[in-house]
């Protein structure tokens, strides 16, 4: 007897064009699903000042400044963008987790963010409910978004 759902998966696979079936097995270009993400800010200047300093301990920096949008990342490609609020009404909190190379980098991110006036959500600590070496800190950015720095490496 076939496992539950296997007929459905097989029929879906048959519907995909060959190029999509092949692309799936080739993997993502950078090993990740996302290419970049962008959030809107009510005060772009304040948000840029915040991200200019909190991303530095993580190896991130401002790479592009287009006036109404600023791109951050590790050169040469920005993968995190902030822009002036231009669409929609009200506010919806976003959660963004930035990769940290070490627990020391998580702590440095947290210290810089707090010095910049960020609201503390969670001080740096292990989160074993996620996995044994998940070490993270959480703060709010100037717009109220939940910003995390995380290292998956052991001490």
Task: Explain what you see.
By secondary structure, the protein is α/β, with parallel strands linked by helices. The chain has a single domain (30-151), classed as Roll (2,3-Dihydroxybiphenyl 1,2-Dioxygenase, domain 1), CATH 3.10.180. The protein is built from 4 helices and 8 strands; from the N terminus they run ααβαββββαβββ. The chain has a 4-stranded mixed beta sheet, covered by helices on one side. Strands 5-8-7-6 form a 4-stranded mixed beta sheet, covered by helices on one side. Strand 6 (120-126) and strand 7 (135-140) form a beta hairpin. The longest helix is centred in the last third of the chain and has 13 residues, at 103-115. The N and C termini lie far apart (47 Å). The model has no long low-confidence stretch (mean pLDDT 86).
Question: How are the SSEs placed, and which strands pair?
Answer:
Blueprint (H helix, E strand, L loop, with lengths): L5 H10 L2 H9 L10 E5 L2 H11 L6 E5 L3 E6 L2 E8 L10 E5 L3 H13 L4 E7 L8 E6 L5 E6 L4
Parallel strand pairs: 1-4, 5-8
Antiparallel strand pairs: 2-3, 3-4, 6-7, 7-8
- Output the helix-strand order: HHEHEEEEHEEE
CATH class: Alpha Beta
Q: How would you classify the helix and strand content by structural class?
A: alpha/beta
Q: Under CATH, the topology is which? A: 2,3-Dihydroxybiphenyl 1,2-Dioxygenase, domain 1
**CATH superfamily membership, which one?**
2,3-Dihydroxybiphenyl 1,2-Dioxygenase, domain 1
Strand content: 25-35%
Oligomer type: single chain
Shape verdict: globular
Number of domains: 1
Q: What is the count of DSSP helices, taking H or I runs of 4+ residues?
A: 4
How many strand segments? 8
Tell me about the largest β-sheet: 4 strands, mixed
Helix content: 25-40%
Please report the distance between the alpha carbons of the first and last residues.
47 Å
Poorly predicted ranges? none
CATH architecture: Roll
Give the strand order, joined by hyphens, for the main sheet.
Answer: 1-4-3-2
Q: What Rg do the Cα atoms give?
A: 19 Å
């Amino acid at each position: 007897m076939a496992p539950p759902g296997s007929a459905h998966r097989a029929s879906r696979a048959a519907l995909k064009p060959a190029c999509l079936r092949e692309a799936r097995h080739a993997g993502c270009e950078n090993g990740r699903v996302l290419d970049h993400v962008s959030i809107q800010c009510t005060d772009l200047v304040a948000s840029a000042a915040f991200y200019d300093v909190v991303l530095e301990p993580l190896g991130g920096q401002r790479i592009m400044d287009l006036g109404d949008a600023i791109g951050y990342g590790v050169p040469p490609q920005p993968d995190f963008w902030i822009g002036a609020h231009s669409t929609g009404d009200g506010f919806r909190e976003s959660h963004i987790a930035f990769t940290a190379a070490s627990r020391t980098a998580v702590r440095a991110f947290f210290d810089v963010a707090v010095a910049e006036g960020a609201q503390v959500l969670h001080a740096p600590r292990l989160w074993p409910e996620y996995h044994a070496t998940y070490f993270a800190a959480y703060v709010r950015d100037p717009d109220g978004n939940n910003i995390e720095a995380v290292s998956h490496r052991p001490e």
